Amino acid sequence: MDDAILFQNYSRDGETSTEIVLWTGKSTQWINFKHFFLSTLVFVGITVAYLYNGNDYILYAYIVPFFTAFWAWLYVQTTQYVLTNHRIVKKHGILNRYTFDVELYRVKDVLLIEPLFLRILGFGSIRLVTSQKTTENFTIPGIRKAKALREQIRKLVEERRINRGVREFDTN
Protein backbone atom coordinates (compact mmCIF):
# COMPACT_ATOMS: atom_id res chain seq x y z
CA MET A 1 0.00 0.00 0.00
CA ASP A 2 1.26 3.46 -0.88
CA ASP A 3 2.30 5.65 2.07
CA ALA A 4 0.84 8.70 0.30
CA ILE A 5 -2.73 7.40 0.58
CA LEU A 6 -4.42 8.51 3.78
CA PHE A 7 -8.01 7.30 3.51
CA GLN A 8 -10.38 5.73 1.07
CA ASN A 9 -13.68 7.56 0.93
CA TYR A 10 -16.88 6.03 -0.31
CA SER A 11 -19.26 8.31 -2.15
CA ARG A 12 -23.06 7.97 -2.16
CA ASP A 13 -23.05 6.06 -5.42
CA GLY A 14 -20.60 3.47 -4.07
CA GLU A 15 -17.50 4.61 -5.94
CA THR A 16 -14.27 4.91 -4.01
CA SER A 17 -12.02 7.92 -4.14
CA THR A 18 -8.62 7.93 -2.54
CA GLU A 19 -7.30 10.80 -0.52
CA ILE A 20 -3.67 11.57 -1.24
CA VAL A 21 -1.44 13.25 1.32
CA LEU A 22 0.15 16.29 -0.31
CA TRP A 23 1.80 17.93 2.71
CA THR A 24 2.42 17.15 6.38
CA GLY A 25 3.99 19.47 8.87
CA LYS A 26 4.34 20.87 12.34
CA SER A 27 4.61 24.36 13.73
CA THR A 28 7.99 25.75 14.67
CA GLN A 29 8.95 26.08 18.33
CA TRP A 30 9.60 29.78 17.64
CA ILE A 31 5.88 30.35 18.23
CA ASN A 32 6.64 29.49 21.87
CA PHE A 33 9.28 32.21 22.20
CA LYS A 34 7.14 34.27 24.59
CA HIS A 35 6.59 31.24 26.86
CA PHE A 36 10.29 30.38 26.89
CA PHE A 37 11.34 34.00 27.44
CA LEU A 38 8.89 34.61 30.30
CA SER A 39 9.79 31.28 31.90
CA THR A 40 13.45 32.27 31.77
CA LEU A 41 12.69 35.62 33.41
CA VAL A 42 10.70 33.93 36.18
CA PHE A 43 13.49 31.37 36.61
CA VAL A 44 16.03 34.18 37.05
CA GLY A 45 13.67 35.97 39.44
CA ILE A 46 13.34 32.85 41.58
CA THR A 47 17.12 32.46 41.63
CA VAL A 48 17.57 36.08 42.76
CA ALA A 49 14.89 35.61 45.44
CA TYR A 50 16.65 32.48 46.69
CA LEU A 51 20.05 34.19 46.80
CA TYR A 52 18.55 37.18 48.61
CA ASN A 53 16.32 35.24 51.02
CA GLY A 54 18.14 31.92 51.40
CA ASN A 55 14.88 30.02 52.04
CA ASP A 56 15.06 26.52 50.51
CA TYR A 57 11.29 26.42 49.94
CA ILE A 58 11.66 29.04 47.23
CA LEU A 59 13.39 26.40 45.10
CA TYR A 60 10.05 24.59 44.69
CA ALA A 61 8.89 27.56 42.62
CA TYR A 62 11.25 26.41 39.83
CA ILE A 63 8.56 23.89 38.94
CA VAL A 64 6.20 26.59 37.61
CA PRO A 65 8.37 28.12 34.84
CA PHE A 66 9.82 24.73 33.92
CA PHE A 67 6.38 23.12 33.62
CA THR A 68 4.98 26.10 31.67
CA ALA A 69 7.78 26.02 29.10
CA PHE A 70 7.72 22.22 28.88
CA TRP A 71 3.93 22.12 28.35
CA ALA A 72 4.12 24.74 25.58
CA TRP A 73 6.95 22.82 23.91
CA LEU A 74 5.10 19.51 24.21
CA TYR A 75 1.87 20.95 22.78
CA VAL A 76 3.65 22.10 19.63
CA GLN A 77 5.51 18.78 19.37
CA THR A 78 2.26 16.79 19.53
CA THR A 79 0.38 18.87 16.96
CA GLN A 80 0.48 17.71 13.36
CA TYR A 81 -1.14 19.09 10.22
CA VAL A 82 -1.96 17.03 7.13
CA LEU A 83 -3.09 18.43 3.78
CA THR A 84 -4.75 16.02 1.39
CA ASN A 85 -6.45 16.60 -1.93
CA HIS A 86 -9.81 16.57 -0.05
CA ARG A 87 -9.24 18.20 3.34
CA ILE A 88 -6.91 19.60 5.97
CA VAL A 89 -6.51 17.60 9.19
CA LYS A 90 -5.18 18.81 12.54
CA LYS A 91 -4.23 16.24 15.17
CA HIS A 92 -3.27 17.57 18.57
CA GLY A 93 -3.33 16.81 22.25
CA ILE A 94 -0.97 15.76 24.98
CA LEU A 95 -3.07 13.58 27.23
CA ASN A 96 -6.18 13.37 25.06
CA ARG A 97 -5.91 13.37 21.27
CA TYR A 98 -8.21 15.49 19.13
CA THR A 99 -8.60 15.40 15.37
CA PHE A 100 -10.20 18.25 13.46
CA ASP A 101 -10.62 18.38 9.74
CA VAL A 102 -11.88 20.91 7.26
CA GLU A 103 -13.17 19.82 3.88
CA LEU A 104 -11.45 21.95 1.26
CA TYR A 105 -14.68 22.82 -0.54
CA ARG A 106 -15.87 24.52 2.69
CA VAL A 107 -12.95 26.97 2.75
CA LYS A 108 -14.08 30.52 1.98
CA ASP A 109 -10.78 32.37 2.31
CA VAL A 110 -7.09 31.57 2.80
CA LEU A 111 -5.09 34.21 4.68
CA LEU A 112 -1.32 34.41 5.02
CA ILE A 113 -0.15 36.02 8.26
CA GLU A 114 3.53 36.93 8.60
CA PRO A 115 4.36 38.67 11.89
CA LEU A 116 7.70 40.50 11.75
CA PHE A 117 9.47 38.13 14.15
CA LEU A 118 8.39 34.99 12.28
CA ARG A 119 8.92 36.57 8.85
CA ILE A 120 12.55 37.35 9.73
CA LEU A 121 13.04 33.68 10.59
CA GLY A 122 11.29 32.50 7.40
CA PHE A 123 8.00 31.37 8.91
CA GLY A 124 4.38 32.37 8.54
CA SER A 125 0.90 31.32 9.57
CA ILE A 126 -2.09 30.37 7.46
CA ARG A 127 -5.65 31.04 8.56
CA LEU A 128 -8.55 29.42 6.78
CA VAL A 129 -11.98 31.03 7.03
CA THR A 130 -14.51 28.26 6.51
CA SER A 131 -18.25 27.69 6.40
CA GLN A 132 -17.87 24.87 8.91
CA LYS A 133 -19.47 25.76 12.26
CA THR A 134 -17.00 23.84 14.45
CA THR A 135 -13.89 25.29 12.81
CA GLU A 136 -14.81 28.66 11.33
CA ASN A 137 -11.21 29.87 11.70
CA PHE A 138 -8.67 27.12 11.20
CA THR A 139 -5.09 28.31 11.79
CA ILE A 140 -1.80 26.62 10.95
CA PRO A 141 0.71 28.70 12.95
CA GLY A 142 4.44 29.11 12.38
CA ILE A 143 5.25 27.00 9.34
CA ARG A 144 8.12 27.27 6.88
CA LYS A 145 7.33 28.19 3.25
CA ALA A 146 3.88 29.45 4.23
CA LYS A 147 3.43 31.40 0.97
CA ALA A 148 3.85 28.28 -1.15
CA LEU A 149 1.52 26.26 1.07
CA ARG A 150 -1.10 29.01 0.95
CA GLU A 151 -1.05 28.95 -2.86
CA GLN A 152 -1.26 25.16 -2.88
CA ILE A 153 -4.28 25.25 -0.54
CA ARG A 154 -5.94 27.99 -2.60
CA LYS A 155 -5.61 25.96 -5.81
CA LEU A 156 -6.85 22.79 -4.13
CA VAL A 157 -9.87 24.65 -2.73
CA GLU A 158 -10.81 25.87 -6.21
CA GLU A 159 -10.39 22.35 -7.66
CA ARG A 160 -12.54 20.77 -4.93
CA ARG A 161 -15.26 23.41 -5.33
CA ILE A 162 -15.39 22.80 -9.08
CA ASN A 163 -15.40 19.00 -8.63
CA ARG A 164 -18.20 19.14 -6.03
CA GLY A 165 -20.15 21.86 -7.84
CA VAL A 166 -20.05 24.12 -4.78
CA ARG A 167 -20.96 27.78 -5.17
CA GLU A 168 -20.76 30.34 -2.39
CA PHE A 169 -23.91 32.25 -1.44
CA ASP A 170 -23.80 34.46 1.66
CA THR A 171 -26.86 36.19 3.05
CA ASN A 172 -26.71 38.90 5.66
From TrEMBL:
Positions of the YdbS-like PH domain: 77-149
Keywords (A to Z) from UniProt: Membrane, Transmembrane, Transmembrane helix
Keyword Transmembrane helix: yes
Entries under InterPro entries matching the protein: YdbS-like_PH
Transmembrane regions listed in the UniProt entry: 36-52, 58-76
One of the Pfam families matching this protein, by short name: bPH_2
Keyword DNA damage part of the UniProt annotation: no
The name this protein goes by in its record: PH domain-containing protein
